[in-house]
Write a structure and sequence with these properties.
four-stranded antiparallel β-sheet; six-stranded mixed β-sheet; alpha/beta; ATP binding; globular; 41% helix; binds adenosine-5'-triphosphate; 274 residues; 10 strands; 11 helices; Rossmann fold
Length: 274
Amino acid sequence: MQTDLLSENMSEKEEMKDITKEASSKEETSSSFVLDIHDLSKMYGVFSAVNNLTLQVKKGEIFGFLGHNGAGKTTTINMLTTLLEPSSGSGTVAGYDIVEEALEVRRKIGYLPENVRFYDSMTAYENLDYFARLSGISKPDSRIWDVLDFLDARTYAHKKISTLSKGMRQRIGIAQAIIHEPEILFLDEPTSGLDPFGVKQLRDVILRLNSEKGITIFMNTHLLQEVTKTCSTIGVLNHGNLIYLDSLSNTMKRFRDEKSLEDIYLNIENSKEE
Ligand SMILES: Nc1ncnc2c1ncn2[C@@H]1O[C@H](COP(=O)(O)OP(=O)(O)OP(=O)(O)O)[C@@H](O)[C@H]1O
């Protein structure tokens, strides 16, 4: 990948607000953060998978959480979505404590895990109806069609999940994750296993969810190009430690001499090793 591509990606982002700069403003109040965690850690026995993670994500951001395999990204998302109790530290998501108010957090978030699970012998509509009722939605039918229309997935409604392609399963997974109109959507490696066309379609969906529905996005990924095309802010996790946090625009400026996204990433990782 050449610098031309970097510039092209950057020009797409030039109008994007410098979110990190704003987030660091002293006038910032905690209420403008949809995610606010302090010294969050997770130990598996004596092994520290996530180590004193402190992080804020503003409403409306698309946050890209980067890291190599085993860095601790999924463990972090599992803590933020209340699936896993932290060993220490504290945090709020959508204003609710991730330990003390886990049920309230769950009502306010959507989550698309890396391998989303459905009832495969049921249709997409039946799966969504089940989740909509579980979420206590009063008029599930109209909500399901609204979401399917937004995702351009109406034609798949009455197909069995087992007959859907990976890309379409992901789309129904997103429908399930947003059926209850969450404030923040967590995505764990959402483009994993998709072909280039599927990757582009999913990227467009993520951008529209953010711009048209106002949903804050927290996305785990190791695909660097996806980050430049989607995210406003990036964090890099390395062996459970947050080693980098800044807006995408600042990152591109800071590393303007690097030839590729991979070089930027390696520069960030190496600078921590030194
Ligand atoms: N239940 C568990 N018990 C023990 N160790 C675990 C457990 N779950 C995860 N780990 C370890 O914690 C570390 C972080 O794992 P995690 O899945 O959070 O990383 P990741 O960044 O999401 O990686 P990947 O991109 O491969 O999914 C890894 O070393 C992993 O082996």
